[in-house]
Amino acid sequence: MEKRRKSGSVLLLAFALVLASLASASGSSCSEDSALEKDRVQTLPGQDFNVEFAHYSGYVTVDEEAGRALFYWFFEAAEDPASKPLVLWLNGGPGCSSIGYGLAEEVGPFHVKPDGKSLYLNPYSWNQVANILFVDSPAGVGFSYSNNTNDVLSNGDERTAKDSFNFLQKWFKRFPQYKGRDFYLSGESYAGHYVPQLAQVIVRSQKSTGDKSVNLKGYMVGNALTDDFHDHLGVFQFMWVAGLISDQTYKLLNVLCDFESFIHSSEQCNKILDTASSELGNIDPYSIFTPSCPGSATFSQNKLLKRLHSVAKMGEKYDPCSEKHSTVYFNLPEVQHALHVNPAAAPSKWETCSDAVYDNWRDSSRSILPIYHELIEHGLRIWMFSGDTDSVLPVTSTRYDVDALKLPTVTPWHPWYDDGQVGGWTQVYEGLTFVTMRGAGHEVPLHRPKQALVLLKSFLAGSPLPTLSEVENS
User: Fold this and answer.
1) C-beta atoms surrounding 374 within 10 Å
2) Is position 7 within any domain?
3) Residue 288 within a domain
4) Is the pLDDT assigned to residue 290 strictly greater than 80?
5) Helix, strand, or coil here: 439?
6) What are the residue numbers of the active site?
7) Which residues span the domain enclosing 205?
């Protein structure tokens, strides 16, 4: 009898534990659903059109002790998001906003009109073929913040990669339907550091823990800072061949800057870079054949990475002042309210790029090429693309970078096509595909939005870009 009582007690205790576990799981699920619904963006000021896709924005805390939180804006695919992969887009700088550039000027569905108060729909948004996530990283960029003010003055490559990985782990808990989904990284400029470094952290974490909830399949970077030496060689050569600088300045640039860091260059290098900037004149170095915004100042070459001076395309009309429009829009209180910005913690003024973050950047890897070797061996799909009218991180720099990897060629150099016209050129190597975009500047999807969408489709499919015969037979 005593034995039966004990057995019954054990059964009751087990039943109670099961109920408690179910209640806890239900509570956790409800909490996640609540956080998700809280982040949902209902409508935006200046949006006079309807969209069928859902989008969300808000914060993910990446360091509880310091109170570091990264701001994100996520867009579901326009059609059937459950069947589409997830793509994370990062802008560089370091210190520039993925919301201000990647989203509002390049691959996002909403772009800002010249009045700075209203939006128009981007027909070539990357959410036509994927679920797209934009993150302002690191803390101090865009709407992202830290409760420890010293954090903004002590950012660097290593912590940025760690915080971005922490962000992803927590973001997937908030959006569990994307766990295990095919996941890709993309970005441009200094994201040539961010993207491979984050990919490396993800891959190494998978190897040590076996956790593949972040199911990274590959990455793609454009006009990317990759290797300080090779990139400097390519920048100076491009500017000289394009007739932007004098013979004397070209020689001095190679003597004084070739072996310098892009981010932490010497005073001598900075001086000759200023001379080069003066010789360039008031052009847009990010897109040398398109007009610059009237009244804008010229930029020192050593500071070009932190200040994207962009030229936007709206319909068939270029607007070289798009950065100004975004600055107006994202500083509107009603816009910040709609995006769930934390007014008590976020920077009091939204800026496309943070001088404080750039000027105080700590560690910056001199070369990312060793990471490429590691990740190519791991089997990731890796593409590099380059707009060929950018003088800041030009096609010559990327070609030097790719050549330094010494990869065997699979498909030789050849043109690719869109609507019967040459879209650019490409070469396929073992483990890497290199693509140029004809007539595009630093922000490739800004200048060639239709062709950039073709690029993304090919990348996600792991397929070669279209040839002329394929275009003619389609």
Assistant:
1) 15
2) no
3) no
4) yes
5) coil
6) 189, 390, 442
7) 55-226+364-473
